[in-house]
Automatic annotation (TrEMBL):
The lineage of its organism: Bacteria, Pseudomonadati, Pseudomonadota, Betaproteobacteria, Burkholderiales. Residues 1-125 form the PPC domain. This is DNA-binding protein. GO terms for molecular function: DNA binding. The keyword DNA-binding applies. Gene3D superfamilies: Hypothetical protein, similar to alpha- acetolactate decarboxylase, domain 2. Pfam families: PCC. The keyword Cytoplasm does not apply. Keywords: DNA-binding. It comes from Pseudaquabacterium terrae.
Length: 128
């Protein structure tokens, strides 16, 4: 396992930046920072919800594959209320985001629709 520390600048789309940085197989181990636009798909919801304001990114974790990321985040709003969900495209970095990625060189990750869940679920394959 190798690690890849990233700093995403003001204005970056959190999900898109991680998708572009994604190797063949990786996990986001940690992420902190701030967001000015937050788009999360909440538990059980079909579509993401968008909020604008000042948000602290408390935790970020998930998997990265060439087929796209699967990311979860917890955030706090300006009053300190904490909530979280699936990270959607359109989460915009307010000041910075610091992310640590674990790269798994001997693995290939893909996603395929699972008939049981209806979602594109992770498929792992060891290369060596």
């Amino acid at each position: 396992m190798d690690v890849l520390p990233l700093r995403l600048p003001t204005g970056a789309d959190l999900r898109m930046a991680l998708q572009q940085a994604a190797p063949a197989a990786a996990f986001v181990l940690a992420g902190i920072g701030s967001l000015s636009v937050l788009k999360l798909r909440l538990a059980g919801a079909a579509d993401p919800t968008e909020w604008q304001g000042d948000f602290e990114l408390l935790t970020l974790c998930g998997s990265l594959s060439p087929d796209g990321p699967h990311l979860h985040a917890s955030v706090a709003d300006a009053e300190g209320r904490v909530f979280g969900g699936h990270v959607a495209a359109g989460c915009i970095v307010r000041t910075t985001a610091e992310v640590l990625i674990a790269v798994l060189a001997d693995w290939q990750f893909n996603r395929a629709t699972d008939p049981a869940t209806g979602y594109a679920e992770l498929i792992t394959q060891r290369l060596r």
